[in-house]
Amino acid sequence: MGTIRKSEVLIIGGGISGLTFALRMARETKINLLMKDDFIYSSTQQAQGGINAVLSKEDSFQSHIDDTLKCGYGLCDEAIVRTVVEAGPDTINELISYGVEFTKNPVGLELHREGGHAHNRVVHAKDATGAEIMRALTESAKNHPNITIFPYHMAIDLIFHYPAGCHTLNEKTRVMGAYVLNTKTNKVNAFLAPIVYLATGGVGKVYPFTSNPHTATGDGIVMAYRAGLEIVNMEFTQFHPTLLFHPDERSFLISEAVRGEGGILRNSDGQAFMEKYDSVRKELAPRDVVARAIDSEIKKTGHPCVYLDVTHLPAAHVKDHFPTIYEKLLGLGIDITIDPIPVTPGAHYSCGGLRVDANGQTACKGLFAGGECTHTGLHGANRLASNSLLEAAVYAKLSSNFILDHLEDFRVIPEIEVAPWVYHDYSDAYEECLVNPLWYEVRHFMWNYVGIIRTDKRLDRANRRIRFLRQEIEDSYWNFKISKDLVELRNISVIAELIIRSAMFRKESRGLHFNVDHPEPSPGFECETVISRSRKPLFR
User: Which CATH number describes the domain made up of 240-347?
Assistant: First the structure.
C-alpha cells in the first residue's frame, strides 16, 4: 500500500458541485479534494449557456416548476423540483459572493431564454458561464487553508466498513474513503474520511460524439454500482442538438442560447425545418425534440450535418453575445456573422445516476453525491436547459447544511485497518495495446445502437456485444498493470451496460428515450428504472 491520507471530508471531483460543497464544508472541516485531471477539464468549465433562476417580475417559481415538469415527461419528483427552483435566487447570490461575475445590463443581471422555457431566466457570463464560475470557485478553493487539492488523482473504488460477518451493503455499512490512483506515478494510495462526496460528473465519453470533457467516464456512478447502490434512469441520455461539426474540433458546443437569440436551423438545402417537428416552439423546443429533428434531417438528406444560421442577426449583437463561439469558429475559418454553423447532435448530459435523497445522501452512511453523477428526481426523462448547474449548486448546499447539522455523528467512526492494494505487475504490450481499440468499439456501437433513436433489435445486439466485451475488459483489468486508461475503459464499459439494460427494460418512448418499436409513452411506465448489482432492472 502506498501513502494513507486522512481528512474529515473527501471530495472526488472539482466542478461546480465539488467546489461549492468544499467551500461550504471548509468553514468547519479539513478537506482533501481529488481531481482526475485539472480544473479546466470539468464539465462545468465547458458550460456555455448559464444557470436558471427566477429573477424577473414577469417570471415566477411556478412557471419554472411547470417548465421543468413538462420537460421531464412525468418522471420528475415535484417536491424536489420545487426545492431546487425556489433556491435559485439565493444560489445566484452565493455564487456572486464567491466572485462570479455574471453579465449585467442597465437594470441588473441579464437573462437569456433557452429551449423549453416560458420566460427569460438564464443567468450567464456571455457564452462562457461555466468558465467564469470555475474561475471564481477555483480561486476561492486554492486559497482556502482547509482545502488540499490533489490534481491527477483518480478514485478507483470506495472503501467501506461493514458490520462483523457481512460483506454486502446494508443499513449499518458506512463509507470510509477511497482507493486512489496517482495518474502520474501509477501508484495507488488510500484516502480515508468519514464523509465522502462524489462529484465525478457525467458519462458522455461512452459515446464518440460528445460535448463532455475527456474525464467524463462515469467513475462515481460505477464505484457506487459496484458497491451495491441503486442506479436510476440511465436510459435517459440527453443529446445536445448542436455540437460543432468540424474535422478539427469534435467536442465544441454551440450554446442553446444561440437558438434562444433567434438562430434558425436549416438543412443542407438551406430550408428551415423545425416547424415540421414542433410548429409552435420551433427552434425553442426541448432538446430531445430538436435532436431527433436534426437526426431525421441528416438521415433524409444524407448530409452529415445541418446548419445553425444567425447571419440574419446584427453582426455586432452576435459578437457581443457570443464572443467565445465567434472567436473559436473564426479560428476554424467560419465567420458566424456571414456563414451558417455546421452542427450535429452529440451526447451531452445524463439524466440518470446514483440515487440520492433530498439531502444528497446515498443509502450508505457518510456517502453523499452531487451534480451529474446523481439522480435526484429533478430532471425526470429530460433535462430542462440550464437546470444542471442550478441542481449541482443547490445540492451542494443541501448536503453541506445536513452534514454540518449532524457533524459530530459523522465524525464518530470505527478504527479500521485498510487492506493493501493488490498490484498486478504483469505487462504484455501485445495485449495492452487493445485498450484503445476496445475503447473505440464500445463508444461506436453505443452511438450506432443506443443513440438518439433506438430499436429493440439494436438494443439486443448492443446487449450481446457489451456482455462479451465486459468480460474481456475485466480479464485485462485484473491481470495487467493498472493505469488510468484501463480504469476508464472498465468504467465506460459498465456505464454502457447500465444504459443498455435500462433502455431494454423501458418498452416505450418517453423524453430522451425514443424506441421506434414503441413510439408512444405508456401509462404503465411512468416510473423510474432502477438497477443495482444485486438484482435485475425494475420499475419503481
Answer: 3.90.700.10
535: its cell numbers: 438484482
CATH 3.90.700.10 domain range(s) in the chain = 240-347
Tell me phi and psi for residue 326, to 5 degrees: -60, -50
Separation CA 514–CA 519 (nearest Å): 7
The series of mean pLDDT values per 10 residues for the chain, 540 residues long, is 87 96 96 91 83 95 96 95 97 96 92 88 89 94 96 95 74 90 93 96 93 93 96 95 89 87 96 96 88 92 95 96 94 97 94 97 96 97 93 97 93 77 71 83 94 96 95 86 92 97 96 95 89 75
Q: 121, 135, 259, 287: which one is catalytic?
A: 287
Place of cell 491527477: 152
Fold held by 429-539: Methane Monooxygenase Hydroxylase; Chain G, domain 1 (1.20.58)
Determine the Cα–Cα distance for residues 389 and 253; give it in Å rounded to an integer: 16
Residue 429, pLDDT score = 67
CATH 1.20.58.100 in the chain: give the residue spans.
429-539
Q: How far apart are CA 490 and CA 471, in angstroms?
A: 10
- What local confidence, expressed as pLDDT, does residue 426 receive? 65
DSSP 529: E
The yes-or-no answer on residue 259 being catalytic is: no
Amino acid symbol at 192: L
User: Edge-to-edge, what's the strand order for the sheet holding 195-198?
Assistant: 147-150, 31-34, 9-12, 195-198, 367-369
Report pTM.
0.92
Beta bridge partners of 347: 210, 239
